[in-house]
Amino acid sequence: MCGIVGYIGENNCVPVLINGLKRLEYRGYDSAGIGILIDNHPLVIKNKGKVSELQSKIEKLKLSSPIGIGHTRWATHGEPNEINAHPHCNGDKSLFLIHNGIIENFETLKKGLQQLGYTFLSETDSEVLVHLIDSFLKRGNNLFKSVRMALTEVEGTYGIAVVYEGEPDKIVAARKGSPLVIGIGDNEHFIASDVSAIIAHTSQVVYLDDGELVEVYKDHFCAKTIADADIEKEVFEITTTLEEIDRGGYPHFMLKEIIEQPESVFNSMRGRILLEQGTAKLGGLELVADRLANSKRIIISACGTSWHAALVGEYMFEQFARIPTEVEYASEFRYRNPIVGSEDAIFFISQSGETADTLAALKEAKNRGALSLGICNVVGSTIARESQAGVYIHAGPEIGVASTKAFTSQLVVLALITLLIARKKTMSLVDGKNIALELEKIPEKIKQILKLNEHIENIAEEFKNATNFLYLGRGYNFPVALEGALKLKEISYIHAEGYPAAEMKHGPIALIDKNMPAIFIAPKDSTYDKIISNIQEVKARKGRIIAVASESDDTIDKLVDYTIKIPDTIRMLMPILSVIPLQLLAYHIAVKKGLNVDQPRNLAKSVTVE
Questions:
Q1: Rounded to 5 degrees, what are φ and ψ at 47?
Q2: Is 2 a catalytic residue?
Q3: Active-site pick, 2, 13, 89, 376
Q4: CA-closest candidate to residue 604, choices 68, 135, 19, 72
């Protein structure tokens, strides 16, 4: 949510800013703007709506500037409109600022500034920052010191970039709890909240950590802590390519990412399966593997889709590693004074590695002495750097707001971790080799499911006008029911609920009628007979049923209205397969409703505020 991009160098910053903002559109936003210096005089242009509308406004002016900053805003304080959009300016418009995050004490700061004579135009918490910085400039401080001193008074989270006409040769940026990266070019530097915004221009980046500020010139940068101590920053090489973050001819990123899943899950397990030993090799856990295997308890903390992956991980860890496992919403974990100690291992799952709630939970766990481990997709992300150890899922860039390939890759990584721990404990070589072999077959089985795309699209046509859905599954497929319902809610705006199938009789069955479709995840496993009973209960109440079933199952066709047949695999891996038809169904329903599946309303790809 919210995107930052900045440029200082010898070229025109305007196309760099616009193209960078377009690369950040996937994060979710409702308004956009840029601020530049022309002959050292500030010019701010912003509007409610899409970056393309901002671009049309700017192109008419034929602007050129060697320094500027741009922003896409996802509203927190104040409705989406041009006034609340970023950048925000001080009173004489000599200073402008963009901000990601939330200033928690903004009302207190605002009252103090109003007593000093400052006037506020917007409803945002961000405008407080630009006036606060201005108040320190007016006391004779330079820009860097003014930003640093202002931030010592701020409570909350921020990723900011600031430009001042009095010092037109620099951008000052800072970070606390909201990601920020510096790109290094040839006599030019870039600032962004996400490397995707600057990947067209450089592969050399520096990640800011919490409490760090940076003064960025065209040919160098200087980093310090908020306490004014100098810092040496490490330069990282980005391996992601432009091609990976383009749609590649697909109508939407979401469809592209669903179709990519044979490759993405293969990349998640590539080089990590030791078939002959019946185990997994995970370099990021190598130094802590024994401590992990000897943990008294495992906790998995996550949000949203990652939380659903965590639920599957709970089944895996308890069934095979025989370690008691709990799954926690990261947003609740740190606020309930959890009982956590040195004998606990806690995994924190986040596609972006920047999820604010998950990062806060990670810091809480570290403070309490637990082994804190990350499962992330984005290399160099904050959670990846803050964790004591961890595993990258290597799913590749995921641009669509509704997670698809990251979810299945998270499940693959959780299965590999299970295999690693279980083989260190009581799992036999035979059982380990069986799981490893089934993992290696997963990419090909996903390819088989993707061939059902047209069949699933036809089902979507039948149900596109439904107003409610019920998703039901048992065991490993209960979390899949939750995830399927979430996908439909996220992109089609149809109300949907996921339940354990056995819980249907404890309330949801009251909703069943001819207008309430029910989707059953019903592979042939140890709970199959129970699922069939649940299907018959729905059918008796005239409910319409879609079943995701095993390709070998001929019985279920007579009991349901529509079937989607998928290949068999072992129970622990079935969620990787059974979720894909649900992703496609949600996608096609949303497209048939004429909705923007890549940027659903009110949602953001990376939730960097609590």
A1: -160, 160
A2: yes
A3: 2
A4: 72
- The continuous run of DSSP H or E covering 43 comes out as strand 41-48
- The answer to the question of residue 603 being in a domain is no
Q: Show the domain range for 477.
A: 451-598
- Whole-number Å distance between alpha carbons of 419 and 273: 9
605 belongs to a structural domain: no
| Residue 606 belongs to some domain of the structure | no
Q: Kind of pairing, strands 297-302 and 344-350?
A: parallel
Read off φ and ψ for residue 419, nearest 5 degrees: -60, -45
Same domain, yes or no, for 126 and 270? Answer: no
What are the Cα distances from residue 579, in Å, to 10, 323, 381, 482, 551?
49, 26, 27, 10, 15
| Claim to verify: residue 77 and residue 226 sit in the same structural domain | yes
* Residue 497 burial (10 A CB sphere; 0-12, 13-18, 19+): middle
Per-residue model confidence as pLDDT tens digits over 515-534 = 889 999 999 888 888 888 88
Helices (H), 345-452: 356-367, 382-386, 405-424, 429-450
Percent pLDDT > 90 in the chain is 71
Looking at the structure, do residues 401 and 320 belong to the same domain, yes or no? yes
Q: CATH number for the domain including 499?
A: 3.40.50.10490
Please list the residues that pair with 177 across neighbouring strands.
158
For 211-279, give the secondary structure using H, E and C. CEEEEECCCCEEEEECCCCEECCCCEECCCCCHHHCCCCCCCHHHHHHHCHHHHHHHHHCCCEECCCCE
Among 206, 238, 270, which residue terminates a domain? 238
Does the model's pTM come out above 0.90? Answer: no
Number of domains in the chain: 3
Q: Which of 214, 238, 262 is the last residue of a domain?
A: 238
CB neighbours of residue 547 within 10 Å: 25
Catalytic residue among 48, 256, 565, 605: 605
Per residue in 164-220, pLDDT (tens digit) is 999 999 999 999 988 899 999 999 999 999 888 898 899 899 999 889 999 999 999
Asked, for residue 394, whether it belongs to a domain, the answer is yes
Is the domain of 437 the same as that of 345? Answer: yes
